[in-house]
Amino acid sequence: DIQMTQSPSSLSASVGDRVTITCRASQGISNFLAWYQQTPGKVPKLLIYAASTLQSGVPSRFSGSGSGTDFTLTISSLQPEDVATYYCQEYNSPPWTFGQGTKVEIK
Amino acid sequence: EVQLLDSGGSLVQPGGSLRLSCEASGFTFSSYAMNWVRQAPGKGLEWVSGISGSGVNTYYADSVKGRFTISRDNSRNTLYLQMNSLRVEDTAVYYCAKSRGLIKGGLDYWGQGSLVTVSS
After folding, report:
1. Helix residue ranges per DSSP H, A30-95
2. What is the rounded distance in angstroms from the CA atom of residue B37 to the CA atom of residue A98?
3. What is the pLDDT of residues B47-59, one digit of tens each?
4. B106 touches A at CB < 8 Å
5. How far is it, in rounded angstroms, from Cα B50 to Cα B58?
6. Which chain B residue has its CA at the smallest distance from A85's CA?
7. Looking at CA atoms only, how far is residue A100 from chain B in angstroms?
8. B92 within 8 A of B40, measured Cβ to Cβ
């Protein structure tokens, strides 16, 4: 099975900061990677699929990049409503493993 | 509008069984893979099981293989998860989630979740 490792596990940043979260796959997954946002008490929301394609309706301050084993999610200018836990998920081969999550807070 | 309505969660004793359902609307159900994802209290997301649009292909996490069975009834637009030999560690909110593709893909719509508590 493919293992997905996210870093950091948590971060604190100021409003307007650029935030980067990384996700590393234990083996190559091409671009079969998605990113999700889960705000407290809410259902997860798809942000990005195919590593870099923005889901409809998601603000353009979110972007994704990477291919193979190393991926990043970037928030170009952190907003208060971005406080959430972010997860990556590979869907190259089953089981479709999630990363352990990155909790983002406002400093 | 896409809607996924989870149901079936409850309190069950260890070793017991439960069947979750997810009724879908607002899209051509048979054209998309479907999944179950769970989240234990205070923990992260865990993908549990997936099924292709036709129902021919099914996939499971190692943690539930041999105990859980995913199925779908495309005539009723409904996804199921039959859970047997339940363990305390299966306690979680279970979400059904739609894939973007026929076989796989990012999960673009999620149900509201159904709480399963396994306890004596």
Report:
1. none
2. 10
3. 999 999 999 999 9
4. yes
5. 6
6. B44
7. 6
8. yes
